[in-house]
Amino acid sequence: MASVPPLDRAGPEIRDQLDVMALREQFPVLAREVHGKPLVYFDNAATVQRPLAVIEAMDDFYRRYNANVHRGVHQLSVEASEAFEQAREDVRRFLNAASEREIVFTRGTTEAINLVANSYLAPRLQPGDEILVTHMEHHANIVPWQMLCERTGAVLKVAPINQRGELLLDGLAEAISERTRLIGVVHVSNALGTVNPVAEICALAARQGIPVLVDGAQATPHEVVDVQALGCDFYCLSAHKMYGPTGIGALWTREALLEQMPPWQGGGEMINRVSFEGTSYNDIPHRFEAGTPNISGAIGLAAAIRWLEETGLERMKAHEQRLLDFATQAMSAVEGLTIIGQAADKGPVISFTLDGVHPNDLGTIIDHHGVALRTGHHCAMPVMQFFGVPATARVSFAAYNLHSEIEVFLNGLEQARQMLA
C-alpha cells in the first residue's frame, strides 16, 4: 500500500459532529458488495446516492396519490398539486430566492442553461455580441452558447485559468467588453474542485450591467447558496448531485427577468387560452414548464432539500473537507501521481493522473477493490486540453464517505501502480 502520512488514527469520524456511521445507514446502496468487496462509492461528483427519505417520498407518491398536477379537482390531483408546489417553495427557501415565482423546474442544470440561452439571450443577441465563459466550464455551460453563437453570429470568449486550476479574475475582467451580453461561470468545477468567487464576479459584472448565469450543479450539495447574496441573475441546479433523483432540477431567475422571457417550449400547462387564431401564455413560472412535469422528481428533490437541511450542510462540508485534506495528503505521497487542480478554495474532488497508467485501466483495477471512481474527461474537455492530458481519474466525496474507505482506495491505487506503471 502507498505510504500514508501520519494522522490521528483515532477516527476523525468520531470527532466530527456529523455521525457518519448513522448517516450511512440511511443509504441502502452502501450495504452492497461489488466484486465481493464492500462498495466504496467515490463517484459523487457524477451522481450522489439517495437516502431513504428521498426514496420513500417518491415511493409514497406513487403508492398513495399518483395523479397529474394543476388539472384535476379530484383528491389525488389536489394532493399531487400541493406536493409539487410545496417542492417549488422548498427550492425557493433552499436558495433564499425572493419568490417561488422565480423557480422553474427543469430536467436539470443542462436544460436550465439551454432555457436561458434560448429564451433570455437569443432574442437579445446581435452579430458580434459576446458571451463570456471560463476555461473550467462543464460542456453544459459551453455547448449551448456555442450553438447560440452559430445561429446569431455572436462570439464566445473564454476567461483564463492558471496551473492550479483557479480562475484569473484579472483575465476575466479584461475579457469583458461593451459587447459582452452574459457571463456564464461554474460555482464549483466538477473536474478540478475549484470554488469560484461568484459573488465577486457578479459584483464586477453588475457594475457594467452584464447578467451572470451560475452553474450550481456541484455547489448545492456542499455550499449554502444564497442567490440574493451572490448577486447573480440565473442559478441552475440538478437534484441528482444533491441526494435527489435524476431527471429533475431547477432554474432560479430574477422575477423581473423571467417576466421578460418568452416561452421556450410549447404545449400543455404553459398556456392560458389556445385557439387556432392564437395562444395566450400562462403566468411565470408555469409558462416555462410545458407538458406533464416530473412530479415524483420534484417531490424527491424537495425531500432531498429537507434531508440536507436536517443533516446540516455546514457539518457535511466540514466532514468532506477533512476527507479531502486526508486524501490529498496521502495521494501526494504516491510515486508518479499528479493531482490536477490544486486551488486554494476547493470542493471535495480530486482529479489525478498516474505516470504510465491510462485512467481507464486504473479505474478497472480499482473497481475490483469495490471502489467506484470516475475516469475520462468529465464533460470538461477544455480543462483536459489546458493541462495537456487526455483524461484523468477522479475521486469525489460525499458526507457518507469514510477515511477508512480512502485507505481501501489507496490499496487499489498502489496495486494498479505496481501492475501498470
Structure, explained:
With 421 residues, the chain is an alpha/beta fold. The chain folds into two domains: 12-50 and 312-420, Aspartate Aminotransferase, domain 1 (Alpha-Beta Complex), CATH 3.90.1150.10; 65-310, Aspartate Aminotransferase, domain 2 (3-Layer(aba) Sandwich). Helices cover 39% and strands 17% of the residues. The strands form five sheets. A seven-stranded mixed β-sheet has the order 4-10-9-8-7-5-6, sandwiched between helices.
Counting structural domains, the number is 2
The poorly predicted ranges are: 1-16
CATH class of the largest domain: Alpha Beta
Which strand order does the major sheet show? 4-10-9-8-7-5-6
Find the CATH topology of the largest domain.
Aspartate Aminotransferase, domain 2
First and last CA, distance: 15 Å
CATH architecture group name of the largest domain: 3-Layer(aba) Sandwich
Question: Helical proportion?
Answer: 25-40%
Largest sheet: 7 strands, mixed
3D shape? globular
Return Rg in Å: 22 Å
Strand elements, count: 17
What is the structure about, briefly put?
By secondary structure, the chain is α/β, with parallel strands linked by helices. It is built from 15 helices and 17 strands.
